Amino acid sequence: MSEAGKIADALARAKEEERFRQWYDRVASKLGIATDPDDPEHYYDYRAFHREVEAGRAKSPDAGGHFPSAFKTEGHPRAFLQDSKGRLFDTRTGEYVAGGRVPERELVASEASPDVPGMDAEKAKRLRDLAMALGAGR
């Protein structure tokens, strides 16, 4: 790459980072979350989500502030949920741990309900551990 190309590339990355930071600052303020978008406690890839929104491949969070599950990172407490029949699925991929695609209505219900009745941190950890034991994420 030419020197001019390197400079143009660096400027484009800097502008992208500035747009991301402005967007993330608004999100963090509105949701009352950590101001560091790279905080590992988020368990969410805000940068990847923002790139997909800018490219028109993802939609902004819903009115309740719920972000698409596809951008959850490893260890997210709600990466694995159970459908209405108790079958375990990965919210990031939309696939059942035992195989097969989760029906859209089940995915929509999981996305629309950030607080699953009875869901707590311990239950989320047990579901994640069960999914890992069954080979999910490999």
Report the principal-axis shape: elongated
Supply Rg.
18 Å
User: Strand share of the residues?
Assistant: 5-15%
Count of alpha/pi helices: 4
Low-confidence stretches: 115-119
Task: Please give a structural write-up.
This protein is mainly alpha-helical. It has 2 domains: 68 residues, no CATH class; 65 residues, no CATH class. 43% of the residues lie in helices and 6% in strands. The protein contains 4 helices and 3 strands, in the order ααβββαα. It has a 3-stranded antiparallel sheet with strand order 1-2-3, covered by helices on one side. The longest helix has 29 residues. The N and C termini lie far apart (37 Å). About 4% of the residues have low confidence.
Compact description:
The chain has about 140 residues and is mainly α. It has helices spanning about 5-30, 45-55, 105-110, 120-135, and strands at about 80, 90, 95. The chain has four helices and three strands, in the order H-H-E-E-E-H-H.
Keywords:
6% strand, mainly alpha, 138 residues, single chain, three-stranded antiparallel sheet, 2 domains
